[in-house]
Amino acid sequence: MEYRKLANTDLNVSAICLGTMTYGDQNTQAEAFNQLDYAMSQGINFIDTAEMYPVPPKADTYTKTETIIGHWLKNQPRDKIILGGKVAGPRRGMDWIRGGPPCLDSTNIREAIEGSLKRMQTDYIDIYQLHWPERNVPMFGQYLFDPANEYVSGKFGEGERKEWVTIRNQLETLAELVKEGKIRYIGLSNEQPWGLMEFLRIAKEYDLPRVATVQNCYNLINRGMEFGMSEVLFRENVGLLAYSPLAFGHLTGKYIDDPAAPGRITEFLGYSQRYKKPNVTPASKAYAELARAHGLTPTQLALSFVYHRWFVTSTIIGATKMHQLKENMAAWDTKLSPEVMLEIEDLHLRMMNPAP
User: Signal sequence span per UniProt (predicted)?
Assistant: First the structure.
């Protein structure tokens, strides 16, 4: 396993991070333990989770993932494991999370982390991330910024407009938690270039914790990170934690071979609008054909592409079956030839970002 220095931290993280958002729904505790044990045995030292998990988010499964991780973590050498957690931001339709959750103010962030620490049976989280921005931004399949959707914190009443919790206030709360030893470093998730730059600017201006990581979607059919954000990561020395490298299974080719194949897309109908767009299936089919023409599996092609991009610090992989986890990890040893990379770029130019 390769280890990489996480930007502006003293952490060396494995280039592959184990994602856990199936634990407590698609995976039982026993299955989760098997995955965690196997990943650690293969050199992974980085685990990513969130208070909202498992997904799709539901009232009856909320926090089950963290609870499972806690049962496992209590028997592990804590200082050998790098744990990433997330606090859920404002979101309609999730009233079971702190009443909405309404905002990312001090009360909500503190309630979230205290709950996470208790469930995971640990005193601290290594990288604590804001799961999505407090402010109005397009995300989770949205791709157009719309000022008409402006909101900030508070309730989401019809036509209601309120000031959102400022980035400075969010950072001040996180600074208190760092000082208290409850978190070591901070990160963002599902963030945009403007947001990342503002967090960095305000942290510098007011001597507050500096963002170390951004966790965003990145894969062959969603390369939005390359439009503006990759330059920011480079120039500001921020690490990318790439999630969804297989595009919810689309890039394994399984839905091309069998549209009814078991997976999140078929088991949770209506979930993940990002992958419902018109060119997702044609693009996935083209990448699968490219892989097979070069003696690769679609999974190898998709994962190797993300694993070895220059701006990716660690790639978050998840699996429901052990054989999937083993295949995903083994794909690390696949290196794509210059010829294959040129063909990938040709496809990208012809079917650019079908799953924004």
Answer: none
